[in-house]
Amino acid sequence: MHQRFLAAYDRQLRTDSESAHAVDTVVHGPLRLSVFPGGRGFISYADLGGADAEGIGDLVDAALDHFRARPDTTSVEWKTRGHDHAPGLHQALVSRGFVAEEPESIMIGEATLLAQDVPVPEGIEIRRTRSDDKIWAMEEMQGIVFEDPEWRARAETTLRRVREDDTVELWIALDGDRVVSAGRLEPVAGTDFAGLWGGATLPEWRGRGIYRALTSQRARSALAMGKRFLQSDSTEFSRPILERSGLIRVSTTTPYVWTKPGC
Fold first, then answer.
1. Are 194 and 185 in contact (CB under 8 A)?
2. Residues 93 and 78: beta-carbon distance below 8 Å
3. What is the dihedral of CA 55, 60, 66, 67, to 10 degrees?
4. Do 171 and 218 form a contact (C-beta atoms < 8 A)?
5. How far is CA 10 from CA 6, 109, 138, in A?
6. Contact 238/195 with Cβ under 8 angstroms?
7. Whole-angstrom Cα distance, residue 131 to residue 129?
8. What pTM was estimated for this model as a whole?
9. I need a surface site. Which of 4, 40, 107, 230 has the fewest CB within 10 A?
10. Are 232 and 238 within 8 A, CB to CB?
11. From the CA atom positions of the chain, what is the Rg in Å?
């Protein structure tokens, strides 16, 4: 099952799927060099074409030359996968100014395994939202959880994304009017997958089943869309919850981020 999930992930969720919402994408050898709203560059690939360490260094240089020449790009993420054959990639990225962020687990599972009845604490309401005020509240909550000072920019990106793409679903858990937990469901067009993204719960509300219930609701919605698999890049907060629900860890992913000088 592990290899079957990983093969489906590599075949369906890399390159085209990762750049689907980019403002612009340029292909350089095996690399796809994309720019997303807000000036975020992103580098993806199905594989590195069998390049050795020297060749990989050349690819990193070419990617950076491309993004340095673009005035609309302020930062660039190179998304690595633990199962890729990529000799010397870590050294090539770090020596050129990329900074490694925390590794995450690539989790995949059958949506049916997560679409279970999960009780929530009394007074908690779980529902979808598309309203501006709730999106701002959701992003502010996630900014607190992830200690992200840029949450306002992310809120603007989410608002724009929701207005442009009616397939993206935002799910929130409310204690009265307060958003205490949230997560997105993003179906991937032309694939068997939907992604679970942005999952976060305020510390004082953890351990009560709220995140599991949010995940269950998103799984039900994915099944209604005809999606078979759910995928998530999970932090150590959400990985154990998804494992208990039936998802398995098939690999790891580590983002390496380069910030343009002066930005």
1. yes
2. yes
3. 170
4. yes
5. 6, 15, 31
6. no
7. 6
8. 0.90
9. 4
10. yes
11. 19
Q: Which residues pair with 77 in a beta bridge?
A: 42, 257
Phi, psi of 82, deg, nearest 5: -65, -20
List the end-to-end C-alpha distance of the chain, in Å, as a whole number. 44
Count other Cβ atoms within 10 Å, centred on residue 27: 12
CB of 140 within 8 A of CB of 134? no
Average predicted confidence (pLDDT) for the chain: 94
Q: Quote the tokens at residue 205.
A: 């509300």
The span from the CA of 211 to the CA of 180, in Å, is 10
Count of other CB atoms within 10 angstroms of residue 196: 27
User: What type of residue sits at position 225?
Assistant: M
Residue 47, token pair as written in the block: 């594989």
Written as one string, the DSSP assignment of 104-166 is EEEEEEEHHHH-------TTEEEEEE--HHHHHHHHHHHHHHTT-TTHHHHHHHHHHHHHH-T
Structure confidence by residue, pLDDT tens digits, 6-39 = 999 999 999 888 998 899 999 999 999 999 988 8
Q: What is the pLDDT of residue 198?
A: 87
Residue 102, burial from CB neighbour count under 10 angstroms (0-12, 13-18, 19+): exposed
| Helix, strand, coil % over all residues of the chain, rounded to 5 | 35, 30, 35
**What's the farthest any 2 CA atoms get from each other in the chain?**
59
CA 16 → CA 69, 120, 231, distances in Å? 23, 38, 16
pLDDT digits (tens, 9 = 90+) for 220-237: 999 999 999 999 999 887
